[in-house]
From TrEMBL:
Protein's organism: Desulfosporosinus youngiae DSM 17734
A GO MF label: ATP binding
Keyword Hydrolase tagged: no
Protein name per the record: ABC-type branched-chain amino acid transport system, ATPase component
One protein family per Pfam: ABC_tran
């Protein structure tokens, strides 16, 4: 479904991605783990078209995304939940969700999908008229995910959904990610919480200073000495 071929991305003189090749197949949960500054967010931004590779290709369903605007990439079926759960603070929960569907015109479908988001996140239903800036951190994460789902993505890109959340909420968010995947959405998940990410993903890539240093089945990686030492606290 998604293929990155030898992708190189720069911020000015900083070479942030150094020849990244990876793939995500339809129906999978794939995780990208690695320490601070490894290039995980850069990788997601390159897929969603916010950054462009200087060298290399990003292909989605067989088509090169190089000349496609970020908005059109959303229409093609890729939606990103950015790091730091950026919601529109001065808008209500329901307005944020409606905004996630701004490229769609099927009013009844949009209504159905808002209901689906409320089924996934009952808390958002309870808070639907509340200004989003006054939601708790966890609720804002739920809203950011719900808003991304409103474009009916085939591929959902999640950037550190567990960041800053209490352990019980982390568990809840990860179980919802699993549920979203079960209902047909392919997922690429960036996480610093390698333990949780490996527990729900089919496959994983380990990124270090802009390069993939390990890749494989999540269970095998979680059991490997190298990953346990560096990312799972021994
Ligand atoms: P974290 O887990 O800390 O969010 P990350 O793996 O997502 O890290 P990136 O945010 O992708 O890492 O950053 C990769 C590298 O690119 C880092 O060295 C970072 O300092 C650099 N970088 C990121 N954004 C910019 C920018 N706008 N300008 C210059 N350098 C940047």
């Amino acid at each position: 479904m998604l293929v990155l071929e030898e992708v190189n991305v720069y911020y000015g003189a900083i070479h942030a991605l150094k020849g990244i090749s990876l793939e995500v197949n339809q129906g999978e949960i794939v995780t990208l783990i690695g320490s601070n500054g490894a290039g995980k967010s850069t990788c997601l931004k390159t897929i969603s078209g916010l950054l462009r590779p200087k060298v290399g290709k990003v292909m989605f369903k067989g088509a090169d995304l190089a000349s496609i605007a970020p908005q059109a990439i959303v229409s093609q079926g890729i939606s990103q939940v950015p790091e730091g759960r950026r919601v529109f603070a001065n808008m209500t929960v329901i307005e944020n969700l409606e905004l996630g569907a701004y490229l769609r015109k099927d009013k009844s479908g949009i209504k159905e999908d808002i209901k689906r988001v409320y089924d996934l996140f009952p808390r958002l239903f309870e808070r639907k008229a509340q200004l989003s800036g006054t939601l708790s951190g966890g609720e804002q994460q739920m809203l950011a995910m719900g808003r991304a789902l409103m474009s009916r993505p085939q591929l959902l890109l999640l950037d550190e959904p567990s960041m800053g959340l209490a352990p019980i909420l982390v568990k809840q968010i990860f179980s919802i990610i699993k549920e979203i995947n079960t209902t047909g959405t392919t997922i690429l998940l960036v996480e610093q919480n390698a333990h949780m990410a490996l527990s729900i993903a089919n496959r994983a890539y380990v990124l270090e200073t802009g390069k993939i240093v390990l890749a494989g089945d999540s269970k095998q990686l979680a059991a490997s000495e190298e990953v346990r030492k560096a990312y799972l606290g021994g």
